[in-house]
Design brief:
Strand 1 (9-13) and strand 2 (19-24) form a beta hairpin. Helix content is 26%, strand content 18%. The protein has helices at residues 49-57, 63-69, 92-102, and strands spanning 9-13, 19-24, 39-42, 85-88. The strands form two sheets. It has a two-stranded antiparallel sheet.
Length: 105
């Protein structure tokens, strides 16, 4: 799934009523609460959120769940720091439902 596949495309109307600029509506991510069912791992060399999501959820497009659950980790790199502890939420159905509700899907 592409990065912007689920984003809505909106069109801003010009003051004279003509069609203006098209843009993507921003995505909102739900708060991900701690759960006793969460899984914790330590990042290994080459680990990325999408690879971990594919390993645990069989869906690399759910990378954002793991990223959102680990807000202290830097978002400016594809690769995770070696040895850092990663929380992997295990209640993805509830998280996806909250995501869909926030974004009107």
């Amino acid at each position: 799934m592409g990065r912007y596949t689920r984003n809505k495309i909106l069109t801003k109307t010009n003051p004279n009523g003509t069609r203006g600029i098209r843009y993507y509506k921003g995505v909102k991510y739900p708060e991900i609460s701690l759960s006793p069912n969460d899984i914790y791992i330590y990042a290994e060399e080459g680990d990325r959120f999408d690879i971990i999501a594919n390993n645990y959820y069989n869906d690399s497009s759910l990378w954002w769940i793991i990223s959102s659950a680990n807000p202290s980790l830097s978002k400016d790199s594809y690769y995770l720091p070696l040895g850092v502890q990663i929380r992997i939420p295990n209640n993805i159905d509830a998280i996806q439902s909250a995501y869909n509700k926030l974004n009107s899907f």
